[in-house]
Structures are given as structure tokens and as C-alpha cells.
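Materials and Methods. Structural model of Alpha/beta hydrolase. The 254-residue sequence of Alpha/beta hydrolase from Lentzea pudingi was retrieved and submitted for structure prediction as follows.
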Amino acid sequence: MRAVEIRPGVRIRWVEVPGATPARVYLHGLGASSAPYYAEAVAHPLLAGRRSLMLDLLGFGISDRPAGFAYSLEGHADALAVALAKIGLRRCEIIGHSMGGAVAIVLAARHPEMVRSLVLVDPNIDPTTPSLGAPGSRGIAAYGEADFLSHGFDRVLRDVGPHWAATMRMAGREALYRSAVDLVRGTSPTMRKLLLELEIPRVLLHPEDAPPGGGRELAGADVQLVSVPNTGHNIMIDNVEGFARAVAQQRLSV
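The predicted structure was written out as C-alpha cells:
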């Protein structure tokens, strides 16, 4: 475990595997933590040998949980940029799952010097509508913040199942709620529009039976769409081989 202070008393932490450059930085989804989700894939023979940082965004996993942080997508991206600069990294390969994919897109748009290429793993790229009882960010964002902090968190934690709950219970409650609200609201321009306009190699992994909406537009903007069989939303866990192969192929396009 390593850490960097991004402002007085606030640290972002990560688990690092040494190796060759360019470094790969792995970003988790909402309520998750990078090492539990990515460790097996990082150790896969197709991906081993590269410097790999399984990094936890502020408010999640082993990173700090400052209550006063906005936890917007832009806030997460800017904090990540500060962390990468202090670590001494530029032009990284960024691999982002779900919310981490949205943060990766915003990072590339706001801090292009930090990003060499993107691998987006079933990412959030469009705004959605909050709905009480819906899974993930939509259900969390349907609460008011006070209600979520007082009883909504416990209800959500009970309903998400043991795998997700194992990392979600590590999250700061304010971080989880505010990140979900901003993820549902999206950015302006939207994450999709930002993604379409980026001029770096971009790969979007999706489950075989759940292609992204607007796939033709994405492909027309040179976003490589890769279908990974036998997976749900957690592609890197459900099919480690398929995930590792898709990420390793990114090396050919940079």
C-alpha cells in the first residue's frame, strides 16, 4: 500500500505492482475498491510485467474520506490528477470500471497530459434518472442526503449482495451518496460527448449481451468496442482471461 497527500491531511492510497512503463492506473466503480476487483487480472500473464497502480478514489477503499469534498466527477478527476503528478506519472494507461470509467473520461478531458489511452470497462457515459430501489447509483441518488446517511445506506448495503457490500461498507457515506448523485446527473458536456471528442486510443469493454447505446456513433469516433463473453457488469472478475486480453491489446495502439 502506498499513499500521496493531495492536500493537507488528505491522502489517496493505492496498491502497486512494480514493472515497466507506461504505467497502468486502475480505477474502481461506485462503492468499490480497485485491488479486490483488479488484482487477479493484474497478475494475469498477459498483463504482468507492467507498473500497475490499483488506486482508490477519495472516499472509497483505503483512501481518505474527507466529509467536505464535493465528490463530483470533476472533483474526483482533479484529485486524481494531483495524485498522479505527485507520484511523478504522466501519460498513463487508465483502466476505469463503471464510475471509474466516467472519472477516467473526465480526467482525459481536463488533464490530457496525464492520459495516454483509455480502457473503459462497462462505463457510465450518459445521465440517468434516479429511482428508489434501483440498483447502483440510480437507487442511491433517489434519496435525499440526510435520509441516505440516516437509513438509506444500511438499506442499500443490505440489498447489494455480499460481494459489493464487502467494499461498499468501506466507503464514506457522504462519498458514496454524492458520487452517485453526480454520476446520475452526469457532466456538461456529457461523458459520452467528452469521450467522442478525445483524440487518444479508447477501448470500451462491454458484456456480450449488453452493448452500449449509440455504438455506431462511438465506433465512428474510433472508440474500439470490445464484446467480452460470459460477463456481467464486473467484466474483470467474471472473465479474467477476456479482460486481460482486451487490455493487453491496447499496447498495440499506443
